[in-house]
Design brief:
single chain; alpha+beta; Arc Repressor Mutant, subunit A; Heat Shock Protein 90; 3 domains; 7-stranded antiparallel beta sheet; 3-stranded parallel beta sheet; 12 helices; 12 strands; about 40% helix
Length: about 350
């Protein structure tokens, strides 16, 4: 084999791409794959170590190798901060070699979440953790304010901060409509491969362009304020405009016209969805959209009153809003069809 620059680059990338799953035997794996000697692979591993892309742990014949993660921490006083300035000064220059679509998503998520802290958290301090390695970018934004779920609970007069999760999933919630659209968290949770909000004892997860879910920490962890963690692969093919367009209506003016809601978020601690009050909580702010996809994945049954409030009462009052139920099991489907047919 002729070791041209391209061949060496290919071998090194193979090592970087496979080192996490083969921390002990990456030398053997790479040697077999390229049919080159182990000393040759070890030479490239040493070069990657000197370039601070991987780390060696332990001595002996089979040391552990892993990707080296570069970490930064930034602490700010929340006084006259500007999120775009923080991005330009502290984060953007660390993503010079990142492909444009990933950098755009990082900029969007960072500026939206930091702006939420500046305008809504009531926190005097803001901390940003930034981590990057060959495969992954991780941005964590931490504040020490009222807490996002408590904030939404207060602003909407909800009885329980758990109900705030549903409002985040809907999108378009903001306590300051004159200055904010309420879209930042909704879209950020769909652009990043992993999106996690933790506040007090409640968590909200998003896994790429899929629906989030509620998770209550089982131990005594109680986070003051809010932590937002965003992770994205450096080779992600997600494009920001594609996510925006998925929830827009091409026949209408530009904007956020469509939402998708995981109805399962309402099932706190095994709670069944039976009542009109539950349904009314679900349909709150549906009138801000033209199309609402109701994802019943994980919902085993719904009551007649619940279904009637959503699929008859609300539909009659808002005939121009298109409700689309998906992922229904047989029990849910029968109840929805019964209401829609008026039987």
């Amino acid at each position: 084999m002729k070791f041209t620059k391209e061949v060496i680059w290919t071998i090194k990338n193979f090592i970087l791409d496979n080192i996490e799953t083969h921390p002990n035997d990456i030398v053997q794996i790479a040697s077999d794959y390229f049919r080159v000697s182990k000393p040759t692979i070890l030479k490239y591993i040493r070069e990657l170590i000197s370039q601070k892309q991987i780390e060696r742990h332990g001595n002996g014949r089979y040391p552990n190798y892993k990707l080296q993660t570069v970490k930064f921490e930034f602490k700010y006083k929340n006084k006259e901060l500007q999120e775009d300035v923080l991005w330009a000064n502290d984060i953007s220059n660390k993503l010079k070699d990142v492909q444009p679509n990933v950098k755009e998503i990082c900029q969007y998520g960072f500026t939206e979440i930091v702006n939420n802290v500046i305008d809504h958290s009531g926190s005097e301090d803001l901390t940003v953790f930034f981590e990057i390695n060959h495969k992954l970018i991780c941005i964590t934004v931490r504040d020490f304010g009222v807490g996002i779920f408590n904030k939404i609970k207060q602003d909407l007069g909800l009885s329980d901060p758990k109900h705030s999760i549903l409002e985040l999933a809907k999108g378009k919630f903001t306590s300051d409509p004159d200055n904010h659209t309420g879209e930042g968290i909704f879209f950020s949770s769909r652009m990043f491969d992993h999106f996690h909000i933790l506040s007090h004892k409640l968590s909200y997860f998003g896994q790429g362009n899929e629906d989030g879910w509620l998770f209550e920490d089982p131990d005594d962890v109680d986070i003051d304020g809010t932590v937002v963690l965003m992770k994205i692969r450096k080779d992600s093919e997600i494009k920001m405009n594609e996510i925006f367009n998925e929830f827009a209506d091409p026949d209408k003016t530009p904007g956020f016209h469509r939402t998708k809601i995981p109805v399962e978020l309402m099932q706190h601690e095994g709670e069944l969805l039976l009542s009109r009050s539950q349904a009314k909580r679900l349909i709150t702010r549906f009138d801000k959209f033209l199309e609402v996809v109701l994802d019943f994945k994980g919902v085993t049954q719904i009551g007649q009153a619940f279904a009637d409030q959503v699929f008859r009462v609300f539909k009659n009052a808002h005939p121009n809003i298109h409700l689309i139920p998906v992922n229904m099991n047989e029990n849910v489907r029968r109840m929805v069809e019964r209401i829609q047919k008026g039987t």
